[in-house]
Design goal:
By secondary structure, the chain is of the alpha+beta class. The protein has two domains: 179 residues, Regulatory protein AraC (Jelly Rolls), CATH 2.60.120; 110 residues, Arc Repressor Mutant, subunit A (Orthogonal Bundle), CATH 1.10.10.60. A five-stranded mixed β-sheet has the order 1-3-8-5-6. Strands 2-9-4-7-10 form a five-stranded antiparallel β-sheet. α3 packs antiparallel against α4, α10 crosses α12 and α11 packs across α12. The protein is elongated, with a radius of gyration of 24 Å. The termini are far apart. It holds the Pfam family HTH_18. This is Helix-turn-helix domain-containing protein. It comes from Chryseobacterium ginsengisoli.
Length: 298
């Protein structure tokens, strides 16, 4: 069985990297002055953000292997697994890392909204590629946190550090929005592919065997993480993938309702609903009337 090393404290992580712990809940590391992580599999109990400025080995995270390029930002959340593989030609890492314990942000505004930063759940091949200007902004945030860590800890320390981390994450949200736009070629046809996957799904026997298609299943079919897929669809359509799937289901249902040889319950089962009343509830919510009334009116 593969050995997995758990990283549950900032101090343990710092010891792996050979750096001093200035605060038990947060650390900023200059990777050119830190030890490389050993070739192991790690289970993170911390939030970790890496800014890599040179190719320095291979990171396997989620389903993909990723070769770091200059100015690449990768985010890891507690509970995620990361594998590190060095290469023979590996050079000393250059870049920065920010790690912080979930306890740091408890009771803060950031703690209430941390789940809204979807990029912590993106796969590594969906990492953020930074421009020179964006790298300077990221570095400024890191250095402000580092400067605060070098001060004596007082009643303001936690608030100031958490606020700077939140500012940094808000910049990351902006940079990802920019990346969605500038990488239109890479994302081109995302909506068409999504539509095709749904069409193929509902023209097969999958609804009866599996049920309604989930967002996670659709993302898997498109080789994307669920959150990255969700953000792309939201940007393209203004609605979430779940809402898009529901609209697709209702459009197909409207056609099926005209087949008077089938009961509403049969239509519900054919579409993948486990219980007909769930179909009726969704239909009424989206259309304004029940399936039976819609059939009668039309």
């Amino acid at each position: 069985m593969e050995k997995i090393i758990k990283i549950n404290t900032v101090d343990f992580y710092n010891k792996l990297r050979g750096v001093e712990t200035l605060n038990p809940l947060v650390s900023v590391l200059d990777l050119s002055k830190a030890n490389s992580l050993p070739e192991e599999t790690f289970n993170f109990g911390l939030y970790a953000i890496y800014l890599k400025e040179l190719k320095c080995g291979e990171l396997r995270y989620g389903r993909s292997t990723y070769d770091y390029q200059e100015g690449t930002l990768v985010c890891v959340a507690p509970g995620q697994i990361m594998q590190v593989h060095a290469r023979p030609e590996t050079v000393a890492p250059k870049g920065w890392a920010l790690v912080f314990h979930p306890d740091l942000i408890k009771g803060t505004l950031l703690g209430k909204h941390i789940q809204e930063y979807n990029f912590f759940s993106y796969d590594s091949n969906e990492a953020l590629h930074l421009s020179e200007k964006e790298k300077h902004i990221v570095m400024d945030c890191f250095l402000k946190i580092q400067d605060e860590l070098e001060q004596n800890i007082d009643k303001h320390s936690k608030t100031l550090i958490a606020s700077n981390i939140e500012l940094f994450l808000n910049y990351c949200t902006r940079f990802y929005d920019r990346q969605f736009i500038t990488r239109d070629n890479a994302n081109k046809g995302i909506l068409e592919r999504f539509e095709s996957i749904l069409n193929n799904y509902f023209s097969s026997d999958k609804p009866q065997k599996i049920g309604l298609p989930s967002v996670a299943w659709c993302a898997e079919e498109m080789n994307l993480s669920a959150n990255y897929f969700g953000d792309l669809i939201k940007r393209e359509t203004g609605t979430s993938p779940q809402e898009y799937i529901q609209s697709k289901v209702i459009n197909i249902a409207k056609e099926m309702i005209f087949d008077i040889d089938k009961s509403i319950s049969e239509i519900a089962y054919d579409l993948g609903f486990k219980y007909p009343q769930h179909f009726t509830r969704l239909f009424k919510q989206k259309v304004g009337v029940s399936p039976n009334i819609y059939r009668t009116q039309n």
